[in-house]
Design brief:
Elements (H helix, E strand, L loop, with lengths): L53 H4 L5 E6 L12 H8 L17 E6 L1 H13 L28 H4 L2 H4 L43 H21 L5 H29 L1 H10 L8 E5 H4 L25 H4 L28 E3 L36 H11 L5 H8 L6 H4 L12 H13 L6 H16 L23 H10 L4
């Protein structure tokens, strides 16, 4: 099996989970200034970084890097920490509890499950282990992505059946293990203390991602079963994992991206390709990982119906990482995706700068360190606010402001007053993540991302697949063999997973 077919580097590192406590370590800092211009790649100007620039001049295959700036020539923005505190703490302007009664929250076009599919995808693309949330002017090529920036399902397969044999059944070396005697079909594999034995422990952060992880395992096992009469040994895993990856990538390309960027931009990406992402580069834009893709936090509902009998649950009520999952809490996917024509699934929360109150005061167990004498040895409340942490990343990586990127893209620039920032906000500009959330609300009623957010998110996913020579896009004419009519959706995957039983 080639190195590519054996996903590597998905081992967890301390203090670096996603999205709550990723990058708690110290980072090397640089004072290199940014320029003031943006250009589509292929134009004249400075390269994204000394590392990623190799991809622009050679033709020897993709360059695997870490992180880079999609808009390297745009000036940075820093925001006053006390302004961030006032904006993001409980009871502040971003607390959904401040929303007036009767206003709709459910997105009619994005079912609730896509929030957690998005988190699963993030865990397959990025694992930032060196950045420092307290840092300033950290350059993207000075932190590290501990996993491959490709949609290779390394969070499922780990390093493959040779190096991570504990994930696999010894009988064939290809079937993935899951379950336990008292819950054989409803939980991932766990040790005697409840710790998940999976390719990426972040997929046990909450029950919904955990259950999606289990569904992909079961889909893989069905593919292994279907191929077992044709292949054996290492060839069985290689063939099965490739087919699973391509079906999974098909879902991302044809469904997930389209829902989040909207039909118009999606059509442009299909016909024109990415305009701001360097060709032939395997890396993740810092504007994506530290801002735009944190869009998913704004789509988390206040309450979820998990199954027929478990209703009104908040995300952190459901399952604590590293604990056994109760059979009665098993997710019924008909409430999260369109798996049952008789049931309308819950919608993801509409995009807005109003965030579920629970996310403004995270459980302290999820946030290691950051003790502060000012708060009697407990974490600064700003570190327990997920929006607060997101906006601290703006300062750490000196990202361009939302209006700065909008101007560079030639699209509408919304003012701070239109964005709903407080009148005493200490800047004429808005942080990129905040801007992207409100832009979606103003431009598209919160149903999908606006021009800035959609461009960054859409180009990143398209480029991840286009720049990976082993993605399904490079097997011309390939169509899914599962699903119906040459199409394959997350609903198809879930139906197959529900039908699969461990032997």
């Amino acid at each position: 099996m080639s190195d590519k077919n054996r996903p590597s580097g998905h081992t967890a590192l301390p203090g670096s989970g996603c999205p709550f406590h990723r990058g708690a370590g110290n980072a090397m800092l640089s004072k290199t200034p940014s320029g003031n211009l943006v250009r589509p790649h292929g134009g004249v100007g400075t390269t994204v970084s000394s590392k990623s620039a190799q991809s622009l001049s050679g033709d020897n295959g993709p360059v695997v890097s870490d992180f880079f700036r999609m808009f390297p020539d745009l000036g940075p923005s820093l925001f006053n920490v006390e302004d961030l505190r006032a904006l993001t703490l409980p009871g502040g302007p971003m607390d959904v509890a401040n929303q007036g009664p009767g206003l709709p929250q459910d997105n009619p076009t994005i079912p609730a499950g896509y929030t957690f599919l998005g988190q699963f995808l993030d865990h397959d693309l990025t694992f930032d282990v060196y950045s420092n949330i307290n840092g300033r002017d950290t350059q993207p090529n000075q932190t590290r992505d501990a996993i491959t920036p490709t949609l290779d399902l390394g969070n499922i397969y780990g390093r493959g059946p040779v190096q991570d044999a504990f994930l696999f059944d010894q009988k064939d070396g290809a079937t993935l293990l899951f379950g336990r005697p008292d819950n054989p079909d409803g939980d991932v594999l766990r040790n005697s203390q409840g710790t998940a034995i999976i390719g990426d422990p972040r997929n046990d952060d909450n029950m919904f991602v955990d259950q999606l992880h289990l569904a992909v395992i079961k889909f893989h096992n069905q593919v292994v079963k279907d191929l077992s009469s044709q292949f054996s040994g290492g060839a069985l895993f290689t063939e099965a994992s490739q087919r699973v990856r391509w079906h999974y990538q098909w879902i991302v390309y044809h469904d997930f991206v389209r829902r989040f960027v909207g039909d118009e931009l999606y059509g442009k990406l299909v016909s024109q390709g990415p305009q701001y992402f360097p060709p032939n580069l395997q890396a993740i834009p810092i504007e994506f990982s530290a801002a735009a893709y944190r869009m998913g936090h704004a789509t988390i509902r206040e309450f979820y119906q998990v199954n027929d009998n478990y209703k009104g649950a908040q995300i952190f009520d459901l399952h604590q990482p590293g604990t056994f999952l109760s059979p009665e809490k098993r997710v019924d996917w008909k409430y999260f995706f369109n798996t049952d024509s008789r049931v309308t699934p819950q919608g993801a929360k509409l995009f807005d700068t109003l965030v579920a109150s629970e996310l403004l005061q995270l459980p302290q167990a999820l946030i290691p360190g950051f003790d502060n004498p000012q708060y009697q040895g407990k974490p600064d409340p700003l570190y327990l606010s997920l929006p607060g942490r997101n906006l601290l990343r703006q300062n750490e990586f000196t990202l361009p402001a939302g209006q700065t990127v909008a101007k560079a893209l030639g699209t509408t620039q919304y003012s701070n007053s239109q964005l709903g920032l407080p009148t005493n906000w200490g800047s004429t500009l808005a942080p990129l993540w905040y801007y992207i959330l409100k832009e979606a609300k103003l431009a598209n009623q919160g149903r999908f991302l606006g021009p800035v957010g959609g461009r960054i998110v859409g180009e990143t996913f398209f480029s991840v697949l286009i720049n990976d020579p082993q993605s399904f896009l490079h097997n011309k004419g390939w169509k899914p063999t599962y699903g119906t009519g040459g199409d394959f959706t997350i609903v198809d995957l879930l139906r197959i997973a529900d039908a699969y039983k461990s032997s």
